[in-house]
Write a structure and sequence with these properties.
Strand order of the largest sheet: 3-2-1-4-6-11-10-7-8-9
Number of strands: 12
Number of domains: 1
Distance between the termini: 37 Å
Helix content: 25-40%
Strand content: 15-25%
CATH topology: Rossmann fold
Shape: globular
Structural class: alpha/beta
Radius of gyration: 21 Å
Largest sheet: 10 strands, mixed
Order of helices and strands: EHEHEHEEHEEHHEHEHEHEE
Oligomer: single chain
């Protein structure tokens, strides 16, 4: 790992992307879980909350849609959203309700572009793919195109009327990209009185192999790992000291792993984290500016059962890109929405 230039890098605003929480809902049973996490985040950040549902038009038919049936759909959607708009616990704000019509992902992205400080909250899958694993098509397209930060709530996340974030895990790789999520993570931990766990995985360095590694190769590999472990411990201790001075409970973890992605996924499970806060990119952001997410964030989106707040630092492009093919992005493969 390389050392980042500064804690909470210059230009990173802890308020950025948190001025308005928008819960993106459908008619699935999972919608209530998305709403509960949206309320939890909104209350922690003292931000207003909107419940957004998109009424997607039926496939084109020879006859025009029945206007009465369409009006009934709007009425039913507003009635359902109205029930969800009351917070699960006493709160200062009742959610605003918004209905949109059109293609779901496009309308969500259009709405978020009109709210520059918007933080989207959405489930990994919708009503058509709730029993499948990974990321659904709608979530995939929103993740690819939406300009702001996103709280992704997996179907497998334990449902609770009022989620409690007792342990918040923050993966750090030493880059300013990864470190830029710390102000937001600190705000959430303070509001929830949560323990903050700062985690770093030290990967095994790759050596070009044309034949079995010789003893000197293995020694070189071991020396690099030990050097990186020492650097990581020093960096994590520095961050821990800085954050602990704010009155928070902070713990650091530095572990070895053959693969950073799978090691982090295992660490999230073993630590029983209630929330993961991570940057959309880490060190790889320097080399892959054409993709919205790094390989670690993309992997965890599809393999973690813990709600994940994916933060786009202020230096990232704010305009949504046109829809791409799955092969053009680093997001996990998708199934039905």
């Amino acid at each position: 790992m390389s050392r980042s230039s500064a804690l909470f890098p210059v230009g990173v605003d802890s308020q950025a992307g948190t001025g308005h929480v928008v819960a993106c809902l459908d008619r699935s049973e999972h919608a209530a879980g998305v709403v509960s996490h949206a309320f939890a985040i909104a209350q922690a950040l003292e931000a207003p909350i909107t419940l957004l549902q998109v009424l997607e038009a039926q496939p084109a038919k020879e006859i025009r849609p029945d206007p009465i049936e369409w009006d009934l759909r709007r009425h039913e959607a507003r009635r359902t959203l109205g029930k969800l708009a009351a917070p699960p616990v006493p709160a200062k704000t009742i959610a605003e309700v918004q209905l949109a019509e059109g293609a779901t992902a496009e309308e969500i992205c259009r709405f978020s572009c009109g709210q520059p400080d918007c933080l989207l909250v959405l489930g990994t899958r919708g009503e058509n793919g709730a029993r499948q694993k990974g990321i659904g098509g709608t979530a995939h397209n929103v993740l690819d195109r939406a300009p702001g930060s996103i709280l992704l709530v997996p179907i497998a996340a334990s449902p609770a009327p009022a989620p409690t974030y007792r342990r918040i895990l923050v993966p750090l790789d030493g880059s300013s990209w990864a470190e830029s999520v710390l102000p937001l993570a600190v705000r959430l931990a303070k509001a929830a009185q949560a323990e903050l766990v700062l985690a770093h995985i030290v990967p095994k360095p790759e050596l070009t192999e044309t034949r079995p590694l010789e003893p000197r190769d293995l020694e070189l590999q071991r020396n690099v790992v030990e050097r990186n472990e020492e650097t990581a411990r020093g960096y994590l201790d520095r961050v821990r000291t800085y954050v602990a001075a704010m009155g928070l409970r902070v713990r650091t973890i530095s572990a070895r792993g053959d693969d950073v992605r799978t090691s982090l996924a295992g660490l999230i499970r073993s630590e029983s984290a209630d929330l993961v806060v991570l940057s959309a990119r880490g060190h790889g952001g320097r080399h892959h500016a054409d993709v919205p997410y790094g390989s670690v964030a993309a992997y965890l989106m599809g393999h973690s059962a813990t709600p994940m707040l994916i933060v786009r630092p202020s230096g990232m492009p704010q305009e949504p890109a046109p829809l791409k093919t799955i092969q053009d992005t680093r997001l996990p493969a998708v199934g039905p929405a």
